[in-house]
Amino acid sequence: MSVEAVTLTNADAARRRIGATLALSAFVVLLMLISLGIGPVRLSPLAVAEALFGGGSEVSQVIVREIRLPRTLLALAIGAILGLSGAALQGLLRNPLASPELFGAPQSAAFGAVLVIALGLADVRSYALPVAAIIAAFGSVFGLLSIAGRNAGLLILILSGLAISSFAGAATALVMNLATNPFLVLEIAFWLLGSLEDRSFQHVMLAFPFIVAGGAMLLSQRNAFRALSLGEETAQSLGVDVGRLRLFVISGVALGVGGAVAVTGTIGFIGLVAPHLMRPAIGHDPGRLLIPSALAGSALLLAADIAVRIIPSTSDIKVGVLTSIIGVPFFLYLIMRERRALGGGVA
Amino acid sequence: MRRQLAFLVAVMALLPGSIAPAANLPRLVSMNVCTDQLVLRLADPEQILGLSKFSRDGWQGPAVGDISRYPVLSGGAEDVLLIKPDIVVASAFDKRSTRELLKAKGLRLAELAVPRTLDEARQQIREAGDITGHPDRAAKEIARLDAALARARGAVAERHYRVLPLSRRGWVAGSDSFVGSLLSETGLRSAAGDLGFTFGGFASLEAIVNLRPDFIVVSQAGDYARDDGQAFLLHPALERFYPLEKRIVIPERMTECGGVMLADALDALTAELKRVGR
Description:
The complex is a heterodimer.
Chain A: H1 3-37, H2 45-52, H3 58-93, H4 105-119, H5 128-148, H6 154-178, H7 182-193, H8 201-219, H9 222-228, H10 232-237, H11 242-264, H12 270-282, H13 286-310, H14 319-337, H15 339-343
Helix pairs in contact in A: 1-3, 1-13, 2-3, 3-8, 3-11, 3-12, 3-13, 4-5, 4-6, 4-7, 4-11, 5-6, 5-11, 8-11, 9-13, 12-13
Chain B: H1 2-14, E1 28-30, H2 33-42, E2 48-50, H3 78-83, E3 87-91, H4 96-104, E4 108-112, H5 118-132, H6 135-156, E5 162-167, E6 171-173, H7 178-186, E7 189-190, E8 200-202, H8 205-211, E9 215-218, H9 228-233, H10 236-241, E10 247-249, H11 252-255, H12 262-276
Parallel strand pairs in B: 1-2, 1-3, 3-4, 5-7, 5-9, 9-10
Antiparallel strand pairs in B: 5-6, 6-8
Helix pairs in contact in B: 5-6, 6-12
Protein backbone atom coordinates (compact mmCIF):
# COMPACT_ATOMS: atom_id res chain seq x y z
CA MET A 1 0.00 0.00 0.00
CA SER A 2 1.44 3.34 -0.93
CA VAL A 3 1.76 6.18 1.54
CA GLU A 4 -0.84 8.10 -0.40
CA ALA A 5 -3.39 5.33 -0.06
CA VAL A 6 -2.88 5.12 3.70
CA THR A 7 -3.43 8.85 4.20
CA LEU A 8 -6.46 8.61 2.00
CA THR A 9 -8.02 5.85 4.12
CA ASN A 10 -7.18 7.84 7.24
CA ALA A 11 -8.92 10.89 5.84
CA ASP A 12 -11.83 8.69 4.85
CA ALA A 13 -12.06 7.24 8.34
CA ALA A 14 -11.91 10.69 9.88
CA ARG A 15 -14.65 11.90 7.59
CA ARG A 16 -16.77 8.89 8.48
CA ARG A 17 -16.17 9.44 12.20
CA ILE A 18 -17.14 13.07 12.06
CA GLY A 19 -20.14 12.28 9.88
CA ALA A 20 -21.33 9.58 12.25
CA THR A 21 -20.87 11.83 15.27
CA LEU A 22 -22.75 14.71 13.69
CA ALA A 23 -25.58 12.47 12.51
CA LEU A 24 -25.83 10.97 15.96
CA SER A 25 -25.92 14.42 17.58
CA ALA A 26 -28.74 15.43 15.28
CA PHE A 27 -30.58 12.22 16.15
CA VAL A 28 -30.18 12.92 19.88
CA VAL A 29 -31.62 16.42 19.42
CA LEU A 30 -34.54 14.94 17.50
CA LEU A 31 -35.18 12.42 20.27
CA MET A 32 -35.07 15.20 22.85
CA LEU A 33 -37.75 17.08 20.94
CA ILE A 34 -39.90 13.96 20.71
CA SER A 35 -39.39 13.36 24.42
CA LEU A 36 -40.64 16.88 25.14
CA GLY A 37 -43.63 16.32 22.90
CA ILE A 38 -44.86 13.04 24.36
CA GLY A 39 -46.73 12.46 27.57
CA PRO A 40 -50.04 11.38 29.06
CA VAL A 41 -51.50 14.79 28.25
CA ARG A 42 -51.69 15.38 24.52
CA LEU A 43 -50.13 18.68 23.48
CA SER A 44 -49.58 19.77 19.90
CA PRO A 45 -45.95 20.37 18.81
CA LEU A 46 -46.79 24.04 18.50
CA ALA A 47 -48.18 24.19 22.05
CA VAL A 48 -45.06 22.39 23.33
CA ALA A 49 -42.75 24.85 21.57
CA GLU A 50 -44.78 27.76 22.88
CA ALA A 51 -44.80 26.41 26.42
CA LEU A 52 -41.06 25.71 26.31
CA PHE A 53 -40.34 29.37 25.65
CA GLY A 54 -42.78 30.65 28.22
CA GLY A 55 -45.94 31.07 26.18
CA GLY A 56 -49.28 29.29 26.20
CA SER A 57 -51.36 28.35 29.21
CA GLU A 58 -49.86 27.93 32.66
CA VAL A 59 -50.79 24.26 32.69
CA SER A 60 -48.98 23.45 29.45
CA GLN A 61 -46.00 25.50 30.62
CA VAL A 62 -45.77 23.48 33.81
CA ILE A 63 -46.18 20.21 31.94
CA VAL A 64 -43.44 20.97 29.43
CA ARG A 65 -40.98 22.90 31.56
CA GLU A 66 -41.33 21.28 34.96
CA ILE A 67 -42.32 17.72 34.11
CA ARG A 68 -41.05 16.84 30.62
CA LEU A 69 -37.92 19.00 30.43
CA PRO A 70 -36.22 17.57 33.55
CA ARG A 71 -37.09 14.07 32.36
CA THR A 72 -35.56 14.72 28.96
CA LEU A 73 -32.42 16.32 30.41
CA LEU A 74 -31.96 13.42 32.82
CA ALA A 75 -32.33 10.86 30.00
CA LEU A 76 -29.76 12.80 27.97
CA ALA A 77 -27.21 13.08 30.76
CA ILE A 78 -27.68 9.64 32.30
CA GLY A 79 -27.62 7.87 28.94
CA ALA A 80 -24.45 9.77 28.10
CA ILE A 81 -22.62 8.96 31.30
CA LEU A 82 -23.60 5.29 31.07
CA GLY A 83 -22.38 5.04 27.47
CA LEU A 84 -19.21 6.92 28.38
CA SER A 85 -18.57 4.72 31.42
CA GLY A 86 -18.96 1.60 29.29
CA ALA A 87 -16.55 2.88 26.66
CA ALA A 88 -14.04 3.97 29.32
CA LEU A 89 -14.11 0.63 31.12
CA GLN A 90 -13.78 -1.22 27.82
CA GLY A 91 -10.83 0.99 26.97
CA LEU A 92 -9.18 0.58 30.34
CA LEU A 93 -9.49 -3.18 30.36
CA ARG A 94 -9.10 -3.60 26.60
CA ASN A 95 -12.08 -5.81 26.83
CA PRO A 96 -15.36 -5.51 24.92
CA LEU A 97 -17.42 -7.10 27.67
CA ALA A 98 -16.51 -4.52 30.28
CA SER A 99 -19.37 -2.30 31.38
CA PRO A 100 -20.65 -0.78 34.61
CA GLU A 101 -23.61 -3.15 34.96
CA LEU A 102 -21.58 -6.32 34.40
CA PHE A 103 -19.25 -5.12 37.13
CA GLY A 104 -22.12 -4.55 39.55
CA ALA A 105 -21.64 -0.77 39.75
CA PRO A 106 -25.30 0.26 39.35
CA GLN A 107 -26.43 -2.57 41.61
CA SER A 108 -23.99 -1.46 44.31
CA ALA A 109 -24.97 2.18 43.86
CA ALA A 110 -28.59 1.11 44.25
CA PHE A 111 -27.70 -0.65 47.47
CA GLY A 112 -26.09 2.52 48.82
CA ALA A 113 -29.14 4.57 47.95
CA VAL A 114 -31.59 1.96 49.22
CA LEU A 115 -29.77 1.86 52.53
CA VAL A 116 -30.25 5.62 52.93
CA ILE A 117 -33.94 5.32 51.99
CA ALA A 118 -34.54 2.38 54.33
CA LEU A 119 -32.80 3.95 57.29
CA GLY A 120 -34.75 7.14 56.71
CA LEU A 121 -31.58 9.13 57.22
CA ALA A 122 -32.47 11.90 54.82
CA ASP A 123 -35.00 13.28 52.39
CA VAL A 124 -34.81 11.27 49.16
CA ARG A 125 -34.21 14.51 47.31
CA SER A 126 -31.08 15.36 49.31
CA TYR A 127 -27.44 14.84 48.40
CA ALA A 128 -27.22 11.98 50.87
CA LEU A 129 -28.58 9.67 48.20
CA PRO A 130 -26.07 10.32 45.40
CA VAL A 131 -23.20 10.42 47.89
CA ALA A 132 -24.12 7.00 49.29
CA ALA A 133 -24.61 5.64 45.79
CA ILE A 134 -21.25 6.97 44.64
CA ILE A 135 -19.42 5.51 47.62
CA ALA A 136 -21.00 2.12 47.02
CA ALA A 137 -20.30 2.23 43.27
CA PHE A 138 -16.69 3.21 43.91
CA GLY A 139 -16.33 0.34 46.36
CA SER A 140 -17.71 -2.16 43.89
CA VAL A 141 -15.57 -1.17 40.89
CA PHE A 142 -12.48 -0.72 43.03
CA GLY A 143 -13.09 -4.10 44.64
CA LEU A 144 -13.62 -5.77 41.31
CA LEU A 145 -10.45 -4.43 39.75
CA SER A 146 -8.48 -5.33 42.86
CA ILE A 147 -9.81 -8.87 42.85
CA ALA A 148 -9.39 -9.37 39.13
CA GLY A 149 -5.94 -7.85 38.93
CA ARG A 150 -4.39 -5.81 36.14
CA ASN A 151 -4.46 -8.13 33.19
CA ALA A 152 -7.45 -10.21 34.06
CA GLY A 153 -9.09 -12.14 31.26
CA LEU A 154 -12.74 -12.05 30.42
CA LEU A 155 -13.62 -14.97 32.59
CA ILE A 156 -12.22 -13.55 35.82
CA LEU A 157 -13.74 -10.13 35.18
CA ILE A 158 -17.16 -11.51 34.39
CA LEU A 159 -17.12 -13.90 37.32
CA SER A 160 -16.01 -11.25 39.80
CA GLY A 161 -18.59 -8.89 38.34
CA LEU A 162 -21.26 -11.51 38.79
CA ALA A 163 -20.19 -12.09 42.38
CA ILE A 164 -20.19 -8.39 43.20
CA SER A 165 -23.54 -7.65 41.59
CA SER A 166 -25.05 -10.70 43.29
CA PHE A 167 -23.69 -9.49 46.60
CA ALA A 168 -25.10 -6.01 46.05
CA GLY A 169 -28.43 -7.59 45.14
CA ALA A 170 -28.39 -9.75 48.25
CA ALA A 171 -27.52 -6.78 50.45
CA THR A 172 -30.39 -4.82 48.92
CA ALA A 173 -32.73 -7.75 49.50
CA LEU A 174 -31.58 -7.89 53.12
CA VAL A 175 -32.37 -4.21 53.61
CA MET A 176 -35.84 -4.78 52.16
CA ASN A 177 -36.25 -7.89 54.27
CA LEU A 178 -35.43 -6.00 57.45
CA ALA A 179 -37.59 -2.97 56.62
CA THR A 180 -40.52 -2.79 59.04
CA ASN A 181 -42.65 -0.52 56.92
CA PRO A 182 -44.50 -2.38 54.15
CA PHE A 183 -44.83 0.83 52.11
CA LEU A 184 -41.09 1.20 52.19
CA VAL A 185 -40.51 -2.25 50.72
CA LEU A 186 -42.85 -1.42 47.86
CA GLU A 187 -41.17 1.93 47.33
CA ILE A 188 -37.74 0.35 47.15
CA ALA A 189 -38.97 -2.39 44.81
CA PHE A 190 -40.42 0.22 42.45
CA TRP A 191 -37.35 2.36 42.70
CA LEU A 192 -35.05 -0.52 41.79
CA LEU A 193 -36.83 -0.96 38.47
CA GLY A 194 -35.38 2.32 37.26
CA SER A 195 -37.52 5.15 35.98
CA LEU A 196 -37.31 8.72 34.78
CA GLU A 197 -40.97 9.41 35.32
CA ASP A 198 -42.12 12.54 37.13
CA ARG A 199 -38.65 13.72 38.02
CA SER A 200 -38.11 17.41 38.65
CA PHE A 201 -35.32 19.94 38.42
CA GLN A 202 -34.50 19.03 42.02
CA HIS A 203 -33.40 15.66 40.64
CA VAL A 204 -31.51 17.31 37.80
CA MET A 205 -29.60 19.41 40.32
CA LEU A 206 -28.95 16.29 42.35
CA ALA A 207 -27.45 14.25 39.53
CA PHE A 208 -25.84 16.76 37.16
CA PRO A 209 -22.84 17.89 39.23
CA PHE A 210 -21.70 14.31 39.70
CA ILE A 211 -22.40 13.27 36.12
CA VAL A 212 -20.51 16.26 34.74
CA ALA A 213 -17.57 15.67 37.08
CA GLY A 214 -17.45 11.96 36.29
CA GLY A 215 -17.80 12.58 32.57
CA ALA A 216 -15.00 15.15 32.59
CA MET A 217 -12.70 12.75 34.45
CA LEU A 218 -13.31 9.99 31.93
CA LEU A 219 -12.95 12.24 28.89
CA SER A 220 -9.72 13.72 30.20
CA GLN A 221 -8.11 10.30 29.89
CA ARG A 222 -8.90 9.68 26.23
CA ASN A 223 -5.28 9.86 25.08
CA ALA A 224 -4.28 7.43 27.80
CA PHE A 225 -6.83 4.91 26.53
CA ARG A 226 -5.39 5.19 23.05
CA ALA A 227 -1.88 4.55 24.36
CA LEU A 228 -3.15 1.70 26.49
CA SER A 229 -4.64 -0.03 23.47
CA LEU A 230 -1.03 -0.64 22.35
CA GLY A 231 -0.43 -2.63 25.50
CA GLU A 232 0.29 -1.69 29.06
CA GLU A 233 4.08 -1.60 28.71
CA THR A 234 3.97 0.51 25.57
CA ALA A 235 1.55 2.86 27.31
CA GLN A 236 3.88 3.18 30.26
CA SER A 237 6.80 3.90 27.93
CA LEU A 238 4.62 6.63 26.40
CA GLY A 239 4.29 8.20 29.82
CA VAL A 240 0.90 6.83 30.92
CA ASP A 241 0.69 6.15 34.64
CA VAL A 242 -1.52 3.08 34.49
CA GLY A 243 -2.23 3.01 38.22
CA ARG A 244 -3.38 6.61 38.17
CA LEU A 245 -5.45 5.96 35.06
CA ARG A 246 -7.27 3.10 36.75
CA LEU A 247 -8.08 5.24 39.77
CA PHE A 248 -9.32 8.02 37.47
CA VAL A 249 -11.58 5.67 35.56
CA ILE A 250 -12.95 4.00 38.68
CA SER A 251 -13.68 7.40 40.26
CA GLY A 252 -15.21 8.77 37.09
CA VAL A 253 -17.46 5.75 36.64
CA ALA A 254 -18.45 5.78 40.31
CA LEU A 255 -19.31 9.50 40.25
CA GLY A 256 -21.30 9.22 37.05
CA VAL A 257 -23.09 5.96 37.72
CA GLY A 258 -23.68 6.78 41.39
CA GLY A 259 -25.15 10.18 40.58
CA ALA A 260 -27.34 8.66 37.88
CA VAL A 261 -28.59 5.72 39.91
CA ALA A 262 -29.42 7.96 42.87
CA VAL A 263 -32.15 9.75 40.92
CA THR A 264 -33.40 7.02 38.60
CA GLY A 265 -32.77 3.66 40.22
CA THR A 266 -30.92 1.03 38.24
CA ILE A 267 -30.89 1.45 34.48
CA GLY A 268 -28.71 -1.25 33.00
CA PHE A 269 -27.00 -2.30 29.81
CA ILE A 270 -26.72 1.09 28.14
CA GLY A 271 -23.03 1.11 29.02
CA LEU A 272 -22.53 -2.28 27.42
CA VAL A 273 -24.52 -1.67 24.26
CA ALA A 274 -23.58 1.91 23.35
CA PRO A 275 -19.86 1.41 22.57
CA HIS A 276 -20.62 -1.68 20.50
CA LEU A 277 -23.10 0.20 18.38
CA MET A 278 -20.47 2.83 17.61
CA ARG A 279 -17.46 0.62 16.87
CA PRO A 280 -18.41 -0.21 13.25
CA ALA A 281 -18.66 3.50 12.42
CA ILE A 282 -15.87 4.87 14.60
CA GLY A 283 -13.33 2.08 14.65
CA HIS A 284 -11.55 0.53 17.59
CA ASP A 285 -9.64 3.52 18.90
CA PRO A 286 -10.89 3.70 22.52
CA GLY A 287 -10.05 7.39 22.80
CA ARG A 288 -12.17 8.31 19.81
CA LEU A 289 -14.96 6.02 20.90
CA LEU A 290 -15.75 7.96 24.08
CA ILE A 291 -17.87 10.83 22.79
CA PRO A 292 -19.79 8.79 20.19
CA SER A 293 -20.53 6.20 22.89
CA ALA A 294 -21.88 8.92 25.16
CA LEU A 295 -24.11 10.15 22.32
CA ALA A 296 -25.27 6.61 21.58
CA GLY A 297 -26.04 6.12 25.28
CA SER A 298 -28.14 9.29 25.28
CA ALA A 299 -29.96 8.20 22.15
CA LEU A 300 -30.63 4.74 23.61
CA LEU A 301 -31.99 6.02 26.91
CA LEU A 302 -34.04 8.77 25.28
CA ALA A 303 -35.50 6.26 22.84
CA ALA A 304 -36.24 3.75 25.61
CA ASP A 305 -37.85 6.47 27.71
CA ILE A 306 -39.99 7.54 24.75
CA ALA A 307 -40.90 3.90 24.12
CA VAL A 308 -42.19 3.36 27.66
CA ARG A 309 -44.53 6.29 27.16
CA ILE A 310 -45.81 4.96 23.83
CA ILE A 311 -46.09 1.22 24.46
CA PRO A 312 -49.72 0.68 25.46
CA SER A 313 -49.97 -1.04 28.83
CA THR A 314 -52.28 -0.98 31.80
CA SER A 315 -49.62 0.36 34.14
CA ASP A 316 -46.54 2.18 32.97
CA ILE A 317 -43.46 0.16 32.07
CA LYS A 318 -40.31 1.29 33.85
CA VAL A 319 -37.49 2.30 31.56
CA GLY A 320 -34.91 0.28 33.51
CA VAL A 321 -36.93 -2.85 32.84
CA LEU A 322 -37.01 -2.07 29.12
CA THR A 323 -33.26 -1.44 28.83
CA SER A 324 -32.55 -4.73 30.59
CA ILE A 325 -35.02 -6.63 28.41
CA ILE A 326 -33.20 -5.31 25.34
CA GLY A 327 -29.73 -5.39 26.88
CA VAL A 328 -29.59 -8.95 28.11
CA PRO A 329 -30.14 -10.59 24.68
CA PHE A 330 -27.48 -8.24 23.35
CA PHE A 331 -25.17 -9.41 26.11
CA LEU A 332 -25.86 -13.03 25.14
CA TYR A 333 -25.05 -12.17 21.55
CA LEU A 334 -21.75 -10.66 22.64
CA ILE A 335 -20.95 -13.74 24.66
CA MET A 336 -21.59 -15.85 21.59
CA ARG A 337 -19.28 -13.65 19.59
CA GLU A 338 -16.60 -13.78 22.25
CA ARG A 339 -17.09 -17.49 22.77
CA ARG A 340 -13.62 -18.36 21.59
CA ALA A 341 -11.94 -15.93 23.97
CA LEU A 342 -14.10 -17.13 26.85
CA GLY A 343 -13.53 -20.80 26.01
CA GLY A 344 -9.83 -20.13 25.70
CA GLY A 345 -9.66 -19.41 29.40
CA VAL A 346 -7.73 -16.65 31.07
CA ALA A 347 -5.76 -14.53 28.67
CA MET B 1 -48.11 -20.66 102.07
CA ARG B 2 -50.03 -17.77 103.54
CA ARG B 3 -47.16 -15.40 102.89
CA GLN B 4 -46.98 -16.54 99.30
CA LEU B 5 -50.67 -15.95 98.90
CA ALA B 6 -50.43 -12.51 100.40
CA PHE B 7 -47.59 -11.71 98.01
CA LEU B 8 -49.67 -12.89 95.08
CA VAL B 9 -52.59 -10.74 96.15
CA ALA B 10 -50.30 -7.74 96.51
CA VAL B 11 -48.91 -8.27 93.02
CA MET B 12 -52.39 -8.68 91.61
CA ALA B 13 -53.45 -5.43 93.18
CA LEU B 14 -50.55 -3.63 91.55
CA LEU B 15 -51.40 -4.89 88.08
CA PRO B 16 -53.59 -2.45 86.20
CA GLY B 17 -56.95 -3.70 85.18
CA SER B 18 -56.72 -6.91 87.13
CA ILE B 19 -59.29 -5.91 89.69
CA ALA B 20 -62.31 -7.76 88.47
CA PRO B 21 -62.46 -9.09 84.93
CA ALA B 22 -66.11 -9.04 83.98
CA ALA B 23 -67.34 -12.54 84.29
CA ASN B 24 -68.87 -13.31 80.92
CA LEU B 25 -67.01 -11.04 78.58
CA PRO B 26 -64.79 -12.81 76.03
CA ARG B 27 -61.02 -12.47 76.26
CA LEU B 28 -59.57 -11.28 72.96
CA VAL B 29 -56.46 -10.92 70.92
CA SER B 30 -56.28 -8.73 67.83
CA MET B 31 -54.08 -9.79 64.93
CA ASN B 32 -54.29 -6.74 62.69
CA VAL B 33 -53.69 -3.04 63.05
CA CYS B 34 -57.26 -2.32 61.89
CA THR B 35 -58.86 -4.75 64.31
CA ASP B 36 -56.63 -3.21 67.00
CA GLN B 37 -58.50 0.05 66.47
CA LEU B 38 -61.88 -1.66 66.91
CA VAL B 39 -60.89 -3.73 69.91
CA LEU B 40 -59.24 -0.81 71.71
CA ARG B 41 -62.31 1.34 71.28
CA LEU B 42 -64.93 -1.22 72.11
CA ALA B 43 -63.51 -3.78 74.55
CA ASP B 44 -62.58 -3.36 78.21
CA PRO B 45 -58.83 -3.20 78.78
CA GLU B 46 -59.04 -6.45 80.79
CA GLN B 47 -60.47 -8.24 77.80
CA ILE B 48 -57.48 -7.49 75.59
CA LEU B 49 -54.74 -10.09 75.88
CA GLY B 50 -52.69 -9.02 72.91
CA LEU B 51 -52.49 -6.59 70.01
CA SER B 52 -50.97 -6.89 66.55
CA LYS B 53 -47.27 -6.35 66.03
CA PHE B 54 -47.89 -3.02 64.33
CA SER B 55 -50.18 -1.79 67.12
CA ARG B 56 -47.59 0.64 68.48
CA ASP B 57 -46.88 2.35 65.17
CA GLY B 58 -49.01 5.30 66.16
CA TRP B 59 -52.14 4.26 64.30
CA GLN B 60 -54.35 4.13 67.36
CA GLY B 61 -54.75 7.78 68.12
CA PRO B 62 -54.70 9.42 71.54
CA ALA B 63 -58.29 8.57 72.47
CA VAL B 64 -57.54 5.01 73.60
CA GLY B 65 -54.89 6.06 76.09
CA ASP B 66 -51.62 4.33 76.81
CA ILE B 67 -51.47 1.07 74.89
CA SER B 68 -48.03 0.01 76.07
CA ARG B 69 -49.62 -2.16 78.74
CA TYR B 70 -50.94 -4.60 76.18
CA PRO B 71 -48.68 -7.41 75.00
CA VAL B 72 -47.64 -7.32 71.36
CA LEU B 73 -48.18 -10.47 69.35
CA SER B 74 -45.60 -11.89 66.98
CA GLY B 75 -48.01 -12.19 64.07
CA GLY B 76 -47.59 -15.94 63.96
CA ALA B 77 -49.76 -18.63 65.52
CA GLU B 78 -47.54 -19.79 68.38
CA ASP B 79 -48.10 -17.10 70.98
CA VAL B 80 -51.82 -16.96 70.23
CA LEU B 81 -52.07 -20.70 70.89
CA LEU B 82 -50.32 -20.15 74.18
CA ILE B 83 -52.57 -17.27 75.25
CA LYS B 84 -55.71 -19.27 74.34
CA PRO B 85 -58.07 -16.30 73.95
CA ASP B 86 -61.81 -16.84 73.63
CA ILE B 87 -61.85 -14.99 70.32
CA VAL B 88 -59.10 -14.12 67.85
CA VAL B 89 -60.05 -10.95 66.02
CA ALA B 90 -58.30 -10.94 62.65
CA SER B 91 -58.54 -9.23 59.31
CA ALA B 92 -59.48 -11.15 56.19
CA PHE B 93 -56.19 -9.81 54.81
CA ASP B 94 -53.94 -11.42 57.42
CA LYS B 95 -51.84 -14.42 56.57
CA ARG B 96 -54.23 -17.18 55.58
CA SER B 97 -51.93 -19.95 56.81
CA THR B 98 -51.89 -18.50 60.33
CA ARG B 99 -55.66 -18.14 60.42
CA GLU B 100 -56.21 -21.68 59.12
CA LEU B 101 -53.84 -23.08 61.72
CA LEU B 102 -55.57 -21.25 64.57
CA LYS B 103 -58.93 -22.49 63.39
CA ALA B 104 -57.64 -26.03 63.09
CA LYS B 105 -56.50 -25.82 66.71
CA GLY B 106 -60.05 -25.04 67.76
CA LEU B 107 -59.76 -21.29 68.39
CA ARG B 108 -62.70 -19.09 67.51
CA LEU B 109 -61.79 -16.56 64.85
CA ALA B 110 -63.67 -13.39 64.02
CA GLU B 111 -62.52 -12.30 60.58
CA LEU B 112 -63.33 -8.74 59.62
CA ALA B 113 -63.02 -7.36 56.11
CA VAL B 114 -62.15 -3.77 55.31
CA PRO B 115 -65.45 -1.96 54.67
CA ARG B 116 -66.01 -0.36 51.27
CA THR B 117 -68.96 1.87 52.07
CA LEU B 118 -70.14 3.85 55.04
CA ASP B 119 -72.94 1.33 55.60
CA GLU B 120 -70.44 -1.50 55.69
CA ALA B 121 -68.41 0.50 58.20
CA ARG B 122 -71.44 0.89 60.49
CA GLN B 123 -72.19 -2.80 60.07
CA GLN B 124 -68.63 -3.67 61.03
CA ILE B 125 -68.68 -1.53 64.15
CA ARG B 126 -71.93 -3.25 65.16
CA GLU B 127 -70.37 -6.65 64.51
CA ALA B 128 -67.30 -5.74 66.55
CA GLY B 129 -69.60 -4.59 69.35
CA ASP B 130 -71.19 -8.05 69.39
CA ILE B 131 -67.81 -9.78 69.33
CA THR B 132 -66.45 -7.79 72.24
CA GLY B 133 -69.72 -8.00 74.14
CA HIS B 134 -70.30 -4.25 74.14
CA PRO B 135 -73.12 -3.49 71.67
CA ASP B 136 -73.90 -0.32 73.65
CA ARG B 137 -70.46 1.09 72.93
CA ALA B 138 -70.79 0.14 69.27
CA ALA B 139 -74.06 2.06 69.08
CA LYS B 140 -72.32 5.04 70.64
CA GLU B 141 -69.51 4.81 68.08
CA ILE B 142 -72.02 4.70 65.24
CA ALA B 143 -73.77 7.74 66.65
CA ARG B 144 -70.38 9.49 66.85
CA LEU B 145 -69.77 8.61 63.20
CA ASP B 146 -73.15 9.93 62.12
CA ALA B 147 -72.66 13.15 64.06
CA ALA B 148 -69.25 13.64 62.43
CA LEU B 149 -70.79 12.98 59.04
CA ALA B 150 -73.46 15.62 59.68
CA ARG B 151 -70.75 18.13 60.67
CA ALA B 152 -68.76 17.36 57.52
CA ARG B 153 -71.86 17.78 55.36
CA GLY B 154 -72.46 21.11 57.03
CA ALA B 155 -68.92 22.21 56.25
CA VAL B 156 -69.19 21.19 52.61
CA ALA B 157 -72.64 22.80 52.40
CA GLU B 158 -73.32 24.03 48.91
CA ARG B 159 -69.76 24.45 47.82
CA HIS B 160 -69.60 21.49 45.40
CA TYR B 161 -65.86 21.20 45.47
CA ARG B 162 -64.25 18.79 43.07
CA VAL B 163 -61.44 17.04 44.94
CA LEU B 164 -58.88 14.40 44.02
CA PRO B 165 -57.80 11.90 46.66
CA LEU B 166 -54.09 11.43 45.99
CA SER B 167 -51.72 9.00 47.67
CA ARG B 168 -48.07 8.17 47.32
CA ARG B 169 -46.79 7.58 43.79
CA GLY B 170 -49.91 9.20 42.37
CA TRP B 171 -52.34 6.52 43.46
CA VAL B 172 -55.88 7.82 43.14
CA ALA B 173 -58.64 6.07 45.02
CA GLY B 174 -61.47 5.55 42.55
CA SER B 175 -64.97 6.94 42.78
CA ASP B 176 -66.21 3.46 43.77
CA SER B 177 -63.61 3.05 46.48
CA PHE B 178 -64.14 3.67 50.15
CA VAL B 179 -62.52 7.09 50.09
CA GLY B 180 -64.60 7.93 47.03
CA SER B 181 -67.84 6.95 48.71
CA LEU B 182 -66.82 8.77 51.89
CA LEU B 183 -66.22 11.96 49.91
CA SER B 184 -69.50 11.71 48.04
CA GLU B 185 -71.38 11.08 51.32
CA THR B 186 -70.20 14.47 52.51
CA GLY B 187 -71.22 16.15 49.26
CA LEU B 188 -67.77 16.50 47.73
CA ARG B 189 -67.22 15.29 44.20
CA SER B 190 -64.26 13.03 43.51
CA ALA B 191 -62.36 13.92 40.36
CA ALA B 192 -61.15 10.32 40.09
CA GLY B 193 -63.98 9.52 37.72
CA ASP B 194 -62.72 12.21 35.32
CA LEU B 195 -59.44 10.32 35.11
CA GLY B 196 -61.35 7.16 34.27
CA PHE B 197 -60.76 5.47 37.61
CA THR B 198 -63.67 3.61 39.14
CA PHE B 199 -61.73 1.47 41.58
CA GLY B 200 -58.50 3.40 41.53
CA GLY B 201 -55.27 3.70 39.63
CA PHE B 202 -52.00 5.58 39.26
CA ALA B 203 -52.39 9.05 37.79
CA SER B 204 -49.51 10.78 36.08
CA LEU B 205 -48.40 14.17 37.27
CA GLU B 206 -49.29 15.64 33.88
CA ALA B 207 -52.82 14.30 34.03
CA ILE B 208 -53.38 15.72 37.53
CA VAL B 209 -52.03 19.13 36.59
CA ASN B 210 -54.17 19.08 33.47
CA LEU B 211 -57.30 18.06 35.39
CA ARG B 212 -56.97 20.87 37.95
CA PRO B 213 -59.38 19.71 40.69
CA ASP B 214 -60.19 22.32 43.34
CA PHE B 215 -58.28 20.47 46.05
CA ILE B 216 -56.21 17.35 46.45
CA VAL B 217 -56.80 15.13 49.47
CA VAL B 218 -53.51 13.82 50.89
CA SER B 219 -52.51 12.00 54.04
CA GLN B 220 -49.75 14.23 55.28
CA ALA B 221 -48.51 17.78 55.17
CA GLY B 222 -44.90 18.88 55.34
CA ASP B 223 -42.01 19.05 52.95
CA TYR B 224 -40.13 15.88 53.83
CA ALA B 225 -39.99 13.01 51.36
CA ARG B 226 -39.05 9.82 53.11
CA ASP B 227 -39.24 7.95 49.82
CA ASP B 228 -39.96 8.39 46.14
CA GLY B 229 -43.68 7.85 46.62
CA GLN B 230 -43.87 10.87 48.91
CA ALA B 231 -41.55 12.85 46.67
CA PHE B 232 -44.23 12.54 43.99
CA LEU B 233 -46.62 14.57 46.15
CA LEU B 234 -43.94 17.22 46.63
CA HIS B 235 -43.05 17.60 42.94
CA PRO B 236 -42.64 21.32 42.12
CA ALA B 237 -45.30 21.09 39.41
CA LEU B 238 -47.82 19.80 41.94
CA GLU B 239 -46.68 22.22 44.65
CA ARG B 240 -47.21 25.12 42.29
CA PHE B 241 -50.90 24.39 41.82
CA TYR B 242 -51.44 22.70 45.17
CA PRO B 243 -49.64 24.45 47.99
CA LEU B 244 -50.82 23.59 51.52
CA GLU B 245 -53.80 25.94 51.10
CA LYS B 246 -55.04 23.65 48.34
CA ARG B 247 -54.40 20.38 50.15
CA ILE B 248 -56.89 18.67 52.41
CA VAL B 249 -54.85 16.63 54.86
CA ILE B 250 -56.42 13.56 56.47
CA PRO B 251 -53.96 11.19 58.21
CA GLU B 252 -54.11 7.75 56.64
CA ARG B 253 -54.45 5.97 59.98
CA MET B 254 -57.95 7.45 60.11
CA THR B 255 -59.03 6.28 56.67
CA GLU B 256 -57.17 3.06 55.91
CA CYS B 257 -59.19 0.81 58.19
CA GLY B 258 -62.58 2.40 57.79
CA GLY B 259 -63.69 1.42 61.27
CA VAL B 260 -64.07 3.45 64.44
CA MET B 261 -61.54 6.02 63.23
CA LEU B 262 -63.85 7.17 60.45
CA ALA B 263 -65.52 9.66 62.74
CA ASP B 264 -62.07 11.17 63.38
CA ALA B 265 -61.41 11.22 59.63
CA LEU B 266 -64.65 13.10 59.01
CA ASP B 267 -63.87 15.59 61.77
CA ALA B 268 -60.42 16.09 60.25
CA LEU B 269 -62.11 16.71 56.90
CA THR B 270 -64.44 19.27 58.48
CA ALA B 271 -61.52 21.09 60.09
CA GLU B 272 -59.51 21.03 56.86
CA LEU B 273 -62.44 22.35 54.81
CA LYS B 274 -62.68 25.26 57.22
CA ARG B 275 -58.94 25.88 56.83
CA VAL B 276 -58.78 25.74 53.03
CA GLY B 277 -62.22 27.20 52.36
CA ARG B 278 -61.39 30.66 53.59
